[in-house]
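pls ignore typos typing on phone
magnesium ion + seq
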Amino acid sequence: MAGPANIGGSRILLRKLREIMEAGGEAQQRLDRLVTMVASTMVADVCSIYLTRGAFHELFATQGLKPEAVHRTRLRKGEGLVGLVAETAQPLNIADAPHHERFSYRPETGEDPYNSFLGVPIVRSERTFGVLVVQNRVARVYGEDEVEALQTIAMVLAEMVASGAFGDLSGLADVEARPSRPELIVGRSFSDGLAIGTAVLHEPHAPLGRVIADDPVREEQRLDAALEQVRGSLKEMIEGDPGRLSGVSREVLETFLMLALDPSWEVRLKHGVRAGLSADAAVERVRGEHRAKLNAARDQYLRERLHDLEDLDNRLLRSLAGVDANSAGAMPADAILIARELGPAELLDYGAERLRGVALEEGAATAHAAIVARALGLPLVGLLPGLLSRVEAGDSIVLDGERGEVRLRPEEQVLSTYRQRLSLRSARDAEFAKLRDQPAITRDGQRVALLLNAGLALDVHHLADAGAEGIGLFRTEFQFMVSETLPRLQSQTLLYRDVLETAGDMPVTFRTLDLGGDKVLPYVTAEREENPALGWRAVRIGLDRPALLRYQLRALISAASGRWLRVMFPLVTTCAEFDAARALVDRELEWARTHARAVPAKVEVGVMVEAPALAWAIPDLAGRADFISIGTNDLMQYFFAADRGNPRVWDRYDILSPSALRFLLRIREDADAANIPVSICGEAAGRPLEALAFTALGFRRLSMPASGVGPVKRLILSLDAQEAAQAVRGMLTAQTETIRAELTHFANERGYLL
Ligand code: PEP
Ligand code: MG
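k done
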């Protein structure tokens, strides 16, 4: 075969492509010339371009097939070998096409004599909108160089179609080469909030109009500069601040750097540039190769390395686009980050300064990025099908973390509705800010302590802004989840000390590791369980394998030296379990004393009521537990037998049902009788209507996400606790599934601010 087997050949091919493009003339003529040129350069009997129009792949140009088939031959999506290439977005290279099971015979094309077939997708920004094909009479498999050459042509072609180079071609308007219409994608909200902004792709693309190099020498210089920048910033990260919150361990960064210094990576990149591609296009092509390998790889280790390589490709592309590889240098000030999936460390690297929100094609409520987003106060919407292929960098976006949806390229009317909603929200926030330093006291003088649920040191910094009186639940497992290796004693101690110091005089309740169930650690291989929520989790792991728990208690005790330490255990089912856990605290205190370490001035040990069995054993906890905190997220999932993470059932039952409220009332009464302070710390405590019900049931300590403090405080200030108690008690005997409507009506009537 001629040319493309070598770099010189590729360059000639790209030059010819450019000449055709720049020669002008009618669009159809240029397409025709293009297929003729490709067929002759690649010594192919046939070269055809199919573009996807609506539900069909339509033949737009051909050299070798019958000319009358152009615009007449239309293959349904998924039909034939062309359909297969488009569907998989992968090249198909076969010697005996007519006998392939997906071959679809179209007599009008006259393709009978051709045996070998090479098809590559025409794809841009994850959007496949056509297929480029070469065919030959002789039955043979095409060489790697030929596949690569055809892919390069397809890449340029994709670019030309997307940038409107064939603007006047009939039928092209229906080819969705780049998204342009307003679209709504419905996903799920993983972090509340509302944002209007500009799309920034975490996995960027070569910019439009920059695929073929104008000046290959300059492109190589650009590539060198970007490589140097990426390597330099990795080195800087390794040598820089080791205690960064992102938890990216030194080893991980070192592996990264090693890959970045790997000459074979550089060789592949240079190969593309020397073949006439722009530096950006060369990187994008190498990333495509890594991605294809990643999709095919089974081995976990290999997959991780390929993932790292893809990450490096992305850094390089960002660097070429003039964006610093680590920080958010050239990001617009209203960036909405778009990614398939995002690690917590990556999100922390972007920082909250220029980010308005995050949209993920995948993601999960418990995903660590969601946790970080909440801590940063950013809305995050995930599970958005097809997001990456439907959004372009620079698109305007509305991110609706209240409803869990995104609007791409919205019309002005939609935008203005959202602007109104945004300004309502900020007016509301300003109102809450005014209440910040005011204690939450009902109109009839009942004081309700509002506390914060936290999990990262970042959250603790919001303590004062939020207007809370302390931290009612510090989820210690987050540090373990956002870290890439098991946090050592030292880093645990540092975090806890930092939290206590930031909280100052305000109380902090640390919950010991709550792992298992949906909370898995990337570096601990867990046994697959049929029913993880009912499985080996939380304190059950802690008691069976006490080393980890004891280390954690040691870190807590050391961090709280001379101060007040409050610890509680998650998912305790029996009093005996609580006793065993408490004994570990005593043992660690003893250890500290015998080793002459400073100990806390005061230690209180509490328990979370999350298992119904323990909820019925409160009287037995008298004199044993110093406090109780009701975790309604778990307690309700067990009470209603409905998985809290399963979208089909998680909101099927209402905590505001008479049965659940009677259950909670019983716990509160038992706790009072046993003289144990009790609080509620599930998400429900942060919703005004639920908080109203809980206050009416006699609860005086509520712990909630930061976003709940303002609204709940406003409610508490507006209500009469005694009047509410009477009303709610009256509703507890109602024969309804929920008192939500009735309670809302009552609150509105009484002027309570929900
Ligand atoms: C709960 O279960 O209500 C709770 C507060 O704990 P988590 O959500 O961390 O399981
Ligand atoms: Mg829980």
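The chain has a mean pLDDT of 89. Residues 7-174 form a domain with the Beta-Lactamase fold (CATH 3.30.450.40). more later
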